[in-house]
Write a structure and sequence with these properties.
Elements (H helix, E strand, L loop, with lengths): L5 E6 L3 H11 L4 E7 L3 H9 L3 E3 L2 H8 L3 E4 L6 H10 L4 E4 L6 H14 L3 E4 L6 H11 L6 E9 L19 H17 L2 E9 L10 E8 L4 E7 L8 H4 L14 E5 L2 E5 L3 E4 L12 E4 L7 H14 L8 H20 L9
Parallel strand pairs: 1-2, 1-4, 2-3, 4-5, 5-6, 7-10
Antiparallel strand pairs: 7-11, 8-9, 9-10, 11-12, 12-13, 13-14
């Protein structure tokens, strides 16, 4: 493995692009060499971090030849940006969703797998210690056979948030922007989702796009689940604030995910594990609560460290392009189910 500093470039100098720049600047062994974004503000971001500024990302790739690229562009530009990296043999980390449509995602996946160039999708929650530990506990059988899952994402977005017209239109709502993270976590922890049934509502704001939804899930394992989501409800019940891992929100300790099995139940992100005191415990006996200790690491920091290993060939992407496509397919199945009022299988899309 080469010992030299890895040279990174970023496509997109907006809010999340700047956060990636700050993470690279704070990481030993990583150097930000360039940012590509035609917006005037991006030139200031590049200057702040001592990186070259480009208007066109293809020119940046050809001239700078970075070791790895982070793509933080609008969703509709993800696929073509990833393919530009693949064509040049450069590993990339692309923010979620992997693409804006399944057709674009399929083209991207085919290109990545044909060229054997790694693509890491930025579902950063998978790198959070509570999510990783939950997956481990379930896989090791500490909960027994997984029976049911409940998840919540409830928050109250302020009215100015919707000044951008696309956030009031189809495709700009909390299903594709927010719930996609929770669906990815549930797929990661519990396995693939075979079928969904959703009810959506826009009754609070009356926009074209949904503001609330309830979703029933059937996992391939046979487990079932429910998800409640709204961006119009005052609530501490969302992973972003409950886990303390979000970049822009205060930490408000609560739980957002609940997993129940034949031997035990687990709440996240508190990591409280509930079970009988003995294997012969009766349902009328008090349960025993044990706290599962985590390492306190940060999801975005862990994601960058993992991407560096992907770049050097020392790790496979935790969220591959194909994996990211399946999460996108599941969310689009939920969107279709809510629109058509019927169960939908993600694999049928």
């Amino acid at each position: 493995m080469p010992a030299e500093v890895l040279r990174f470039a970023i496509m997109g100098g907006g809010l999340i692009g700047r956060e990636h720049a700050a993470l690279i600047a704070a990481t030993p062994g990583a150097d930000l060499v360039a940012i590509a974004d035609p917006a005037p503000a991006a030139k200031l971001v590049a200057s702040e971090f001592g990186a070259r500024h480009y208007l066109d990302y293809r020119t940046m790739l050809d001239e700078m030849r970075p070791d790895g690229v982070i793509i933080a562009l609008p969703n509709a530009l993800h696929a073509q940006a990833v393919i530009a990296c693949i064509e040049r043999g450069i590993p990339c980390l692309v923010e979620k969703p992997v693409a804006d449509t399944l057709e674009a995602a399929r083209d991207l996946v085919a290109a990545a797998e044909r060229a054997d160039i790694p693509v890491l999708v930025g579902h950063q929650r998978r790198h959070s210690p509570d999510i990783a530990k939950a997956k481990q506990l379930i896989e090791e059988g500490h909960l027994g056979r997984l029976v049911g899952v409940n998840a919540m994402w409830l928050a109250d977005k302020p009215e100015p948030y919707f000044d951008a017209a696309w956030r009031r239109q189809a495709g700009g709502g909390p299903l594709l922007i927010n719930l996609i993270h929770d669906i990815d976590c549930l797929r990661f922890i519990c396995g693939d989702i075979a079928e969904v049934m959703a009810f959506t509502s826009n009754s609070v704001r009356g926009f074209e796009v949904e503001d609330s939804a309830s979703v029933s899930l059937r996992f391939s394992s046979g487990a079932v689940g429910t998800v409640l989501m709204s961006d119009a409800a005052v609530s501490p019940y969302n992973w972003d604030t409950a886990a303390g891992q979000a970049l822009y929100f205060p930490h408000q300790p609560e739980n957002a995910y609940f997993f129940s099995g034949t031997k035990a139940a687990l709440a996240l992100p508190s990591m409280d594990l509930w079970k009988h005191e003995t294997e012969e415990g009766h349902w009328q006996d008090p349960l025993v609560k044990r706290h599962v200790t985590l390492d306190g690491s940060r999801a975005y920091v862990n994601q960058l460290a993992h991407f560096m290993k992907v770049v050097t060939g020392d790790a496979k992407p935790l969220v591959s392009a194909r994996d990211g496509m399946m999460t996108l397919a599941t969310i689009l199945a939920i969107v279709r189910s809510g629109r058509e009022r019927r169960p939908v299988n993600p694999s049928d899309l």
